[in-house]
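Sequence design from tokenized structure. All designs in this work follow the same two-part layout: the structure record, then the generated sequence. An example of the structure record is given first.
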């Protein structure tokens, strides 16, 4: 039964024909647009494009989904292939083969044509010139006797209010104008100068009242900055009062520090729902500087300690809140090391026990905040979280070193105390396996490891054998432990950092030899023969290094490509020590023992390595899992 007369099939074929005709017209329009675009490109940048003769709109082959029996578009002779120019891209489609521009790129926009740059620059310059003009006007009025003290103060206050009002008016007429910021900044600066006049020049109000008035002016500036969403205006308002406070009360620095601390606290809400990290530094840095300088002004140490702890506690609490509470303003964490400076200054100025307690308490607080922030990574604030965590950990590492130095109080146990801190940090890094903790560990361990250079004379100079004490032996032993722990944690956190791991292991081996020498000198001193103990320690160090070389050679036969060269290098180092050091500085029985024992160990190493190598050749090597056959004993 024929279905050619089926009305449904005929309707489907008719729809296919209409769809094919519509698609052909769409491609024709696309080709016209592509031709027009090419012409516009040639006209606008002729040096970058090769002129192409205008041959009319390029044709494009209809898609494969078009019905095979679709009628050709009127005016065409069938279906032709597409030339290199494709159809105009639709919305969201990227051009597939638009040629890249040849030659040099177009010059960037000059700095004077950038949006708002010139206007902001002129606003700053205009504000400064206006302020200078106001000062000249007041000076001229005073010289001519036009204004008395009361009139000067009132006129300056009215001028400040007028400038701020004008700024508000300008801002309403033209949103975002830089002129309004310039007018407002000039108004606040005039208000600050007026506060100086009534507080210091005429002394009409007490110093505390003057600081309170300046604080109110700063809070007004912050409110206006919030309304205008201008971090610049908020920074000017806070920085202005921070610079003004020491001028008003230069002989009451404790009062200045108290005022700035209150300002730091009450201005914190200005950052809610804003990422104003510059304002954060402007709020905190001047306060930290003033509190850190209080010991130089012979202020009561108890008050200094209290202010330093309050500032550090507030910054740590707000930093933690910025990570844990979504509605709290996010803190950048840059201020964490800043607020540790006043605590350090107070700790150094206080008694040793008080200072030690301060530094240990600050270290524990920093570690606690770092632990709490590391467990929280809210959406969109991962960078802030990591910065706060890292800043706390790095600062905690430095403060822990200071605490250890205060505990030792400059005795021979200072280096062991510092190395103990490094070992504790290395242990924490091994346990947590966190790269941020590893960074703090490396920072904390750097200074103690550098200071271990002071132990070198006790390992190479026999004349210092009488001066060796238990603290030196403990320090040398802790150096070995610290280097081994660092090598382990670095290899786990950065598996590809083989050079650093090998350097740490080599340092640990050298330190182990020095430990043996110092131990020998100390034991000899207990037996009233420190020099004999020193020479015995030298022999023990040589034997230790040769034994280590033997172990490495045997390990090399089990598949480590690095162990054999390392073992040979240590053997060469040990032989060199025998020939150049032991031969020159040892005598008698110690020299004989060094050469006999060392020679026997080297002979044993050669014989044992040869036998082990022969056995490894006779025995089948470990099967390579990749299916390429047995592996060589020296293949990693």
């Amino acid at each position: 039964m024929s279905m050619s007369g089926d009305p449904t099939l005929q309707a489907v074929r008719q729809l296919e024909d209409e769809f094919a005709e519509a698609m052909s017209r769409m491609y024709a329009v696309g080709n016209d647009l592509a031709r027009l675009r090419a012409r516009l490109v040639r006209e606008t940048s002729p040096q970058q494009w090769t002129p192409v003769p205008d041959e009319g709109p390029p044709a494009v082959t209809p898609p494969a989904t078009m019905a095979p029996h679709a009628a050709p578009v009127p005016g065409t002779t069938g279906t032709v292939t597409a030339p290199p120019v494709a159809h105009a891209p639709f919305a969201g489609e990227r051009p597939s083969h638009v040629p890249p521009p040849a030659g040099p790129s177009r010059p960037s926009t000059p700095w004077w044509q950038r949006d708002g740059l010139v206007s902001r620059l002129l606003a700053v310059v205009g504000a400064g010139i206006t302020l200078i003009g106001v000062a000249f006007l007041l000076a001229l009025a005073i010289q001519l006797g036009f204004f008395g003290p009361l009139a000067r103060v009132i006129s300056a206050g009215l001028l400040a209010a007028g400038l701020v009002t004008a700024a508000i008016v300008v801002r309403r007429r033209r949103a975002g104008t830089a002129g309004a910021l310039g007018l407002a900044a000039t108004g606040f600066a005039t208000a600050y100068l007026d506060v100086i006049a009534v507080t210091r020049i005429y002394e009409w109000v007490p110093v505390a009242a003057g600081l309170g008035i300046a604080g109110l002016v700063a809070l007004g500036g912050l409110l206006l900055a919030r309304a205008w969403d201008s971090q610049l205006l908020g920074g000017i308002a806070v920085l202005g009062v921070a610079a003004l406070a020491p001028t008003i009360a230069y002989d009451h620095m404790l009062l200045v520090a108290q005022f700035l601390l209150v300002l730091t606290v009450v201005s914190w809400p200005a950052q809610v729902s804003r990422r104003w990290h510059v304002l954060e530094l402007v709020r905190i840095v001047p306060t930290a500087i003033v509190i850190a300088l209080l010991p130089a002004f012979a202020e009561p140490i108890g008050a200094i300690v209290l202010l330093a702890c309050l500032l550090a506690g507030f910054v740590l609490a707000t930093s933690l809140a910025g990570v844990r509470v979504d509605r709290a303003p996010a803190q950048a964490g840059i201020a964490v090391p800043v607020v540790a400076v006043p605590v350090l200054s107070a700790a150094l100025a206080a008694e040793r026990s008080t200072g030690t307690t301060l530094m240990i308490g600050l270290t524990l607080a920093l570690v606690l905040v770092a632990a709490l922030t590391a467990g929280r990574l809210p959406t969109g604030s991962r960078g802030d979280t990591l910065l706060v965590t890292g800043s706390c950990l790095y600062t905690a590492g430095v403060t822990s070193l200071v605490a250890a130095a205060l505990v030792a109080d400059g005795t021979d146990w200072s280096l062991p105390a510092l190395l103990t801190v490094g070992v504790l940090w290395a242990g924490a890094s091994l346990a947590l396996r966190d790269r941020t903790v590893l960074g703090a560990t490396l920072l904390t361990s750097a200074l103690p490891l550098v200071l271990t250079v002071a132990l070198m004379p006790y390992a190479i100079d026999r004349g210092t054998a009488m001066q060796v004490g238990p603290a030196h032996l403990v320090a040398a032993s802790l150096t070995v432990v610290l280097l081994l722990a660092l090598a382990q944690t670095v290899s786990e956190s950065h598996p590809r950092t083989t050079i650093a791991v090998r350097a740490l292991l080599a340092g640990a081996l050298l330190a182990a030899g020095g430990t043996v020498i110092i131990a020998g000198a100390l034991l000899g001193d207990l037996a009233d023969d420190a020099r004999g103990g020193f020479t015995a320690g030298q022999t023990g160090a040589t034997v230790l290094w040769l034994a280590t070389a033997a172990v490495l050679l045997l390990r090399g036969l089990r598949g480590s490509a690095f162990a054999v060269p390392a073992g040979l290098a240590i053997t060469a180092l040990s032989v060199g020590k025998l020939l150049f050091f032991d031969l020159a500085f040892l005598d008698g029985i110690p020299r004989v023992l060094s050469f006999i024992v060392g020679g026997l160990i080297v002979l044993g190493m050669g014989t044992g390595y040869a036998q082990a190598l022969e056995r490894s050749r006779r025995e089948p090597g470990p099967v390579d899992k990749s299916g390429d056959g047995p592996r060589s004993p020296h293949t990693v």
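The first helix runs from residue 7 to 44. We note this feature because it recurs in several other targets discussed in the main text.
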